[in-house]
């Protein structure tokens, strides 16, 4: 089990210390700020029941324990918990185990109260705001592919939206009537089906028609507002004077922009845990997968416990109704006001136009393997064009969203985060990317190891040669050239354990390769395209 994680950059050292109970469940986490570990008191199912930081004789309660400890529904969704300032969070599920009511309240005063209804495909059809009706959506409609077509709301608040698409899932038009930030966009595409124009209210400054708007890998290099540069891993490394640095997990660990130099540290699951800016460090506190607080330098606070709200509202694809905030925002991703983009780890996303700036690193076959039969054909689409049902935690694979967060900032020393709302609808100063019962990892095949029959089939398909080094391999165990079955799409990333996703490798290559994919950039093995191999095989069959 991971006990300590250290990030060393620019002579700075940031350390995370993990503690576990006797069952191997995470029981504490000490952040780089050195202010004591946050204790989670996991129950018998490994679910965190509190979030309390102990620093010597001092303690900070983010989520109460004891008699007020967090409870869970049978499906693992958080039922109720109480923040350290007595704000109570409660989630009521319907008969399909989907959120019916999300309620954050302090005494008799509701801070967040959102009711949901659904159609037979589990698409949200209404969101009723019991605190501010100007931000209710009385109706949401979808087409036959479950893509969002329209929302109906009050123009004085959230407004109504309308969308249309072409056969490839490209947005052709997108409008919103909110008087606070209206838009009416029309989209054009070139012969490569890449965005070439955006016109209408809200499109000011966009220009994708220049010869240098895209590089040869499909990354947006100029959108009319800013230029963008990328390395060979398709990571954005520069935009104007801004500079960005990434770790081996494709997570942005250093930024240099108009606000100075900042550093970030993530969990192995990709959750932002710590940021250090020129103002100091900020720790992000979670109850399981739910972001519940942030604490540290520059955190918005209030001098009493009266229930101060800090709420931001979003159009369907994530553009803010209010002024954008350079923080963790829409679906829990860091928004860069300098760029006008949300950083989603594998890619950057433009919420004003509802499209990614880079093509999907997961190809069509990868999406097919995960059950996305139609939507995987468009490499720039966000959340299957249904941002109320799906999120994209890592910028790769849309994940079902049972509910997304809205912020309620309450307290003296920290910003407490109340969870409610829906993606594209609510959010704020800090926000939870990951819902309780839908993890940020892809759903894994229960079967992880290939059978002897599977390995023999892969051996025959590869003509008895390793698909990495090309050497002869043997079915006999115990040598470096013994045949092993390797997942082309890694099992930990949701790859299936079947012959179509299997590559014959020698043990030496498989053990050296680790989680790298066949032919991955930066790999020391000969570049091959496993997807072409699979497609050729399917055609022969």
UniProtKB/TrEMBL annotation:
CDD domains: HNHc (cd00085). Coiled coil: none annotated. Transmembrane segments: none annotated. Keywords: Endonuclease, Hydrolase, Nuclease. One of its GO terms (molecular function) is endonuclease activity. Residues 529-541 have a biased composition (Basic and acidic residues). The keyword RNA-binding does not apply. Residues 454-511 form the HNH nuclease domain. The keyword Hydrolase applies. Residues 493-541 are annotated as: Disordered. This is HNH endonuclease. It comes from Thalassomonas viridans. The lineage of its organism: Bacteria, Pseudomonadati, Pseudomonadota, Gammaproteobacteria, Alteromonadales.
């Amino acid at each position: 089990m991971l006990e300590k994680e250290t990030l060393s950059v620019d002579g700075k050292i940031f350390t995370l210390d993990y503690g576990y109970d006797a069952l191997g469940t995470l029981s504490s986490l000490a952040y780089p700020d050195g202010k004591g570990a946050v204790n989670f008191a996991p129950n018998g199912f490994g679910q965190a029941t509190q979030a309390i930081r102990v620093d010597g004789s001092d303690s900070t309660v983010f989520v109460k324990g004891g008699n007020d400890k967090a409870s869970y529904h049978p499906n693992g969704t958080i039922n109720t918990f109480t923040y350290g300032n007595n704000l109570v969070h409660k989630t009521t599920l319907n008969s399909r185990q989907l959120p019916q009511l999300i309620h954050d309240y302090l005494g008799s005063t509701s801070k967040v109260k959102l009711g949901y209804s659904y159609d037979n495909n589990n698409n949200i059809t209404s969101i009723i705001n019991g605190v501010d009706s100007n931000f209710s959506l009385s109706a949401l409609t979808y087409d036959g592919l479950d893509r969002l077509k329209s929302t109906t709301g009050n123009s004085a608040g959230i407004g109504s939206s309308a969308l249309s698409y072409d056969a490839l899932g490209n947005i052709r038009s997108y409008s919103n009537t909110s008087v606070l930030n209206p838009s009416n966009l029309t989209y054009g595409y070139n012969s490569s089906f890449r965005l070439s124009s955006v016109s209408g209210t809200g499109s000011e400054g966009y220009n994708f028609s220049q010869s240098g708007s895209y590089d040869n890998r499909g990354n947006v290099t100029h959108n009319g507002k800013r230029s963008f540069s990328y390395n060979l891993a398709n990571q954005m490394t520069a935009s104007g004077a801004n500079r960005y640095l990434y770790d081996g997990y494709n997570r942005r660990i250093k930024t240099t922009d108009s606000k100075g130099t900042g550093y970030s540290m993530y969990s192995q699951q990709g959750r932002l845990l710590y940021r250090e800016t020129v103002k100091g460090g900020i720790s992000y506190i979670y109850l399981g997968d739910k972001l519940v607080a942030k604490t540290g330098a520059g955190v918005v606070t209030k001098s009493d416990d009266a229930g101060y709200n800090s709420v931001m509202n979003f159009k369907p694809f994530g553009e803010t109704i209010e002024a954008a905030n350079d923080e963790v925002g829409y679906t829990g991703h860091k928004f860069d006001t300098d760029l006008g983009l949300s950083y989603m780890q594998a890619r950057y996303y433009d919420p004003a136009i509802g499209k990614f700036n880079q093509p999907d690193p997961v190809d069509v076959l990868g999406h097919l393997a995960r059950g996305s039969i139609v939507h995987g054909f468009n490499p720039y689409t966000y959340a299957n064009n249904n941002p109320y049902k799906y999120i994209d935690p890592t910028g790769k694979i849309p994940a079902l969203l049972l509910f997304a967060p809205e912020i309620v900032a309450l307290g003296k020393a920290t910003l407490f985060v109340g969870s409610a709302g829906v993606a594209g609808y609510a959010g704020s100063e800090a926000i939870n990317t990951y819902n309780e019962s839908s993890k940020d990892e892809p759903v894994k095949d229960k079967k992880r190891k290939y059978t002897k029959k599977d390995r023999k089939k892969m051996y025959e398909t590869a003509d008895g040669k390793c698909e990495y080094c090309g050497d002869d391999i043997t079915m006999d165990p115990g040598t470096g050239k013994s045949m092993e079955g390797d997942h082309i799409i890694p099992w930990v990333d949701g790859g299936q354990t079947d012959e179509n996703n299997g590559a014959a490798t020698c043990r030496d290559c498989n053990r050296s390769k680790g989680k790298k994919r066949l032919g991955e950039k930066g790999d020391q093995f000969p570049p091959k395209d496993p997807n072409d191999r699979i497609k050729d095989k399917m055609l022969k069959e």
